[in-house]
Amino acid sequence: GFKTDFSCRYLDAPAANRDFIATREFFPDRVSTSIRQKTRWTAGIAFQGTKSLGWAGGPIDRYFLWRDRRGPLNGVLILASLVLLATYLGHYFLLGEFPAAARDGIFPYLLGANSIQMSWRLLVRLHTTERIYGWRFALLMPLRWPLANVINTIAAWKAFRSYRASVRSGQAMAWVKTQHRLPAGFGTSFVEEPALARAEEEASA
After folding, report:
1. What are phi and psi of 56, to 5 degrees?
2. Could you tell me what percent of the chain has a pLDDT over 90?
3. CA 156 from centre of chain
4. What does the pLDDT look like over 78-89, one tens digit per residue?
5. Closest CA to 144 of 128, 159, 125, 118
6. Helix (H, G, I), strand (E, B), or coil: what is residue 12?
7. b or e along 37-47 (b: 16 or more beta carbons within 10 Å of the residue's beta carbon)?
8. 150-163 pLDDT, tens per residue?
9. For residues 192 and 161, what is the distance between their CA atoms, to the nearest angstrom?
10. Which of 51, 138, 150, 199 has the smallest count of CB within 10 Å of its CB?
């Protein structure tokens, strides 16, 4: 029964930077631990969450539940899209043209619409990453994005296997803990009191 709100709040940090109020924890920086972390999230959100909570709520609630729980399906679609892309490119290099299915009908329009949405999503991620971490980190985003897709796909498969084994055996899924690294200076305040007061005034306004 509580109301919820998506709020973007920040403190005025030194050197005219914005210190956003958010969870402060680095995602694992190794592929193996990243997959382990994502596997646990996917298993809990997509499989255990669906079993425990179902699809309660109105259309908006169900839409956001769907957004959270579509991870395993995304993994399947990513693999299918890569196979399709390789097939079409192979057809082009061998025969000098794309298959008729890629040139006719609704496919070109779907490809264009998806390309626009993907480009917009990447631009938003680039902008928000630059806003918080700077251009050096933002410029690496196009390289991290494909790797993140690979990690998500592997994690979705491992989560599905773990959940299926749990259902078949009747035993609860094992909790796999991932070691985390917190940012330097975590838990210490470096924001001056006037800046904190301004942020509180903005939040209350």
Report:
1. -70, 155
2. 17
3. 13
4. 888 888 888 988
5. 125
6. strand
7. bbbbbbbebbb
8. 999 999 999 999 99
9. 50
10. 51
CA atoms within 13 A on the CB side of 24: 10
Contacts of 47 (CB under 8 A, 6+ apart): 72, 159, 160, 163
Q: Where are the beta strands (DSSP E) in the chain?
A: 10-12, 18-20
φ/ψ of 34, rounded to 5, equals -65, -45
Q: How many CB atoms lie within 10 A of CB 72?
A: 21
Q: Which residue has the tokens 């998806």?
A: 114
Q: CB count, 10 Å around CB of 122?
A: 13
d(CA 91, CA 109): 20
HSE, CB side, 13 Å, CA atoms: give it for residue 69. Answer: 18
Q: Which 8-state DSSP code applies to residue 47? A: I
